[in-house]
Amino acid sequence: MFSGHQRVTAAYRNQWTSVPVPYLTFSVGYDQKISLPRLKTGAFGIGALFNYDRAGDANLSWAQLGLNLSYTQKLAESLFLTAGAQVQGSQRAFDPQRLYFDEQYNGDTFDPTLPNYESFLRTSTVYLDYSAGINGLFQSPLSRTQVQVGMAYRHINRPSISFFGVSDIRLMPLTAAYLTGAVEVAELLDWTLAVMGQFQGDAREWVFVSGLRYHLKQEQGRAIAVGLAGAYRWGDAVIPSVEFYVHNWRLGLSYDVNTSPFRMATLRNGGPEVTLQYVLYKVQPPDTFKACPIF
């Protein structure tokens, strides 16, 4: 659910650069709306998303390519309901040449040329993954105020992620729930907010966001605005951020300031993240067409 017809989004993150092996993550996605003449109060959405993550001494990587399909139904003048599904192909891999073992210690020093006597029959694994989600949108017809609430359930099929073909090493299901919104508090000012929770096995994550967005120009397709926000990831980090909206472009910059006990290793350094988005608006043809006769 976005204002526009086609959208391209990219994100880059480099986390914990002060530790020996930082985390590297980037994503790029494309999605668009498909309106059919028979669906006067509904529309389909299609898209693709690529994620890549790398971390650890062995450069453990995770590449994911997902194809998305959704359908949105207009329930009332200001209320929309969307259901979607995703099928995703993933690959996990690592580089054993970057690992070191006790057998490479010659008694006095470490000698990387010595054999490690380790056998890696497989250094990568691939699998298919399925997810689904639902989203509700309320958009005020008289202001910029809008609220979205939704939930996703990922890894429905619990795919095996073992490098050794062990079937009981599986990716646990993940549930994500969120609420985001913007409330028009003045002619040119919005209050923005978001709450997100993720739950996977015994792991929990909560993120709370609040900020302000000031509109310099509000013409669709030529809007200009700037936003400032602060977020808190429960028990982990404080996250200041700034966003710039210039016509069809949106640029976001944020930085994690680590507050968890891991700050002893990170020196309170977290990770910078950059997001960039481009939205394309199509010119809609008129509902009726009148031909002017030539005299």
Structure description:
With 295 residues, this protein is mostly beta strands. 1% of the residues lie in helices and 59% in strands.
Rg over CA atoms, rounded to whole Å, is: 24 Å
User: What form results from the Cα inertia axes?
Assistant: globular
- Helical coverage, percent range: under 10%
Q: What is the overall pLDDT average?
A: 89
Low-confidence segments, given as residue ranges, are none
**Beta-strand content estimate:** over 45%
The total strand number stands at 14
One letter per element, helices H and strands E, the order comes to EEEEEEEEEEEEEHE
The major beta sheet can be summarized as: 14 strands, antiparallel, barrel
- Structural class call reads mainly beta
Number of discrete helical segments: 1
The termini sit apart by 47 Å
Task: Please give the order of strands in the largest beta sheet.
Answer: 1-2-3-4-5-6-7-8-9-10-11-12-13-14
Oligomer designation? single chain
